[in-house]
């Protein structure tokens, strides 16, 4: 009998990444043909076949990058659809750099023993890690990273948590600054005052203030873009805190052209739908709808438990969250005022939000704000986040439009990818790489 989890996963196309699923399919063939017996010859053959597949995908990505480099930006979308990779995976996005996937596979295989498995085929997570490693290898090789941006929850800290002084990611953030790399936090948390972000990031803020090895100029390479793309704050070394940057100093097209009425009407519709959900989906009566200037959402409430004599959080079911975010997306994208602006619908694992703007705009804002005369290129930008599914719980997905990305699943993974980005892969104990 097939498990309930497996049945539900196959039905949830909105939670799948088609490129990763396509690569999984390619790897399934050699797994079936060459993993029947557990001996060294078969493992060597299987490793070779996997490497050949990743080299082929690497070449397909390279073809698309060559097209980007050869045609005017306004013509790229048309020409991208004619590349072999786009024909094989129609939903695949743009790539801003080449990806050494064969070498990345060798790295991850040395760590995860992918080719040594005879019962479990290469998984979604295996391929995600390989894609991440390939992106890091490419950027380390060319020493061309100028901006690294991060999601907040589940990326820098646990969901609903904060950056404490003991968080292992803090030293790596400081190391990026020492190298002259801009650090941006592009988060859905929509506060219009700096103090709220100072509280969420207090461990990083204290470490930044106390570190004498980083110049004041480099310390001011830290910025927070809140509410997806609505509020900009930059670290001021003289005041030792984040300060708000007036909107007129950083806002750019297309956000500059959006009308207040269109944004208000879009949020009005979203709020109305959320109120209907509370009744139609039998949500806990403690769930609360929160309206902000540039966002509206529904969050779980709290309930007193007389048995434990404690206040507990009343959770909404995963199915309820997914129903809400997918319905919001579908209804709002067909709403005339919403089509004249940009919005993001997503669930954060325990709540659902509709925000004005998107992380692609937030990352682009930082690319231009930090370097107005010569904006940082997407190929020089790396966004790290946990929500890259094509639809629904995916507000990091749009960041792919503005830069290269790393898809992580926890703050611990963020620490690991930053370690590889700043220090390399020596700790993987990899044998010398031999290109095929």
From TrEMBL:
Source domain of life: Eukaryota
Top class in the EC scheme: hydrolase
Enzyme Commission number: 3.1.3.-
Protein function: IMP-specific 5'-nucleotidase involved in IMP (inositol monophosphate) degradation.
Keywords of this entry: ATP-binding, Hydrolase, Magnesium, Metal-binding, Nucleotide metabolism, Nucleotide-binding
Protein family membership: Belongs to the ISN1 family.
Catalytic reaction list: IMP + H2O = inosine + phosphate
Coiled coil: none
A UniProt-annotated Pfam family: ISN1
MF terms (GO), sorted A to Z: 5'-nucleotidase activity; ATP binding; magnesium ion binding
Quaternary data: Homotetramer.
Needed co-factor(s): Mg(2+)
UniProt record, GO biological process: inosine salvage; nicotinamide riboside biosynthetic process; nicotinic acid riboside biosynthetic process; nucleotide metabolic process
InterPro entries in the cross-refs: HAD-like_sf (IPR036412), ISN1 (IPR009453)
Designated name of the protein: IMP-specific 5'-nucleotidase 1
């Amino acid at each position: 009998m097939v498990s309930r989890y497996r049945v539900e996963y196959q039905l949830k196309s909105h939670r799948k990444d088609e490129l990763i699923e396509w690569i999984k399919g390619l790897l399934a063939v050699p797994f079936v043909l060459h993993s029947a017996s557990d001996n060294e010859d078969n493992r060597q053959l299987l490793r070779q076949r996997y490497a050949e597949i990743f080299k082929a995908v690497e070449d397909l990505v390279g073809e698309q990058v060559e097209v980007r480099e050869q045609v005017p930006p306004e013509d790229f979308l048309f020409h991208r659809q004619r590349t072999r990779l786009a024909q094989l995976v129609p939903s695949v996005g743009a790539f801003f750099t080449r990806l050494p996937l064969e070498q990345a596979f060798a790295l991850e295989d040395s760590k995860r023993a992918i080719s040594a498995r005879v019962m479990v085929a290469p998984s979604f997570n295996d391929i995600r890690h390989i894609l991440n490693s390939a992106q890091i290898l490419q950027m380390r090789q060319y020493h061309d990273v100028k901006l690294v941006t991060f999601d907040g929850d589940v990326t820098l800290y646990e969901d609903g948590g904060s950056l404490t002084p003991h968080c292992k990611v803090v030293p790596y953030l400081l190391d990026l600054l020492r190298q002259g790399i801009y650090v941006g936090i592009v988060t859905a948390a929509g506060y219009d005052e700096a103090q709220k972000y100072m509280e969420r990031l207090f461990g990083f803020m204290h470490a930044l203030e106390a570190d004498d090895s980083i110049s004041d100029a480099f310390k001011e390479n830290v910025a927070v873009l809140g509410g997806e793309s609505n509020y900009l704050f930059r670290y001021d070394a003289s005041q030792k805190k984040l300060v708000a940057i007036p909107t007129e100093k950083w806002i750019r097209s297309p956000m500059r052209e959006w009308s207040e009425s269109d944004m208000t009407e879009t949020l009005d519709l979203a709020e109305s739908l959320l109120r209907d959900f509370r009744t139609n989906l039998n949500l806990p009566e403690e769930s609360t709808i929160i309206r902000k200037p540039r966002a509206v959402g529904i969050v779980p409430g709290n309930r007193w438990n007389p048995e434990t004599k404690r206040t507990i959080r009343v959770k909404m079911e995963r199915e309820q969250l997914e129903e809400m975010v997918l319905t919001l997306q579908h209804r709002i994208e067909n709403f005339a005022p919403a089509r004249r602006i940009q919005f993001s619908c997503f669930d954060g694992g325990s709540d659902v939000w509709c925000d004005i703007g998107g992380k692609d705009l937030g990352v682009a804002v930082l690319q231009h704000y930090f370097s107005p005369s010569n904006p940082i290129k997407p190929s020089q930008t790396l966004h790290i986040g946990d929500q890259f599914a094509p639809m629904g719980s995916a507000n990091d997905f749009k960041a792919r439009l503005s830069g290269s990305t790393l898809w992580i699943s926890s703050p611990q993974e963020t620490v690991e990818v930053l370690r590889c980005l700043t220090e390399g892969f020596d700790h993987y104990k990899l044998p010398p790489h031999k290109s095929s």
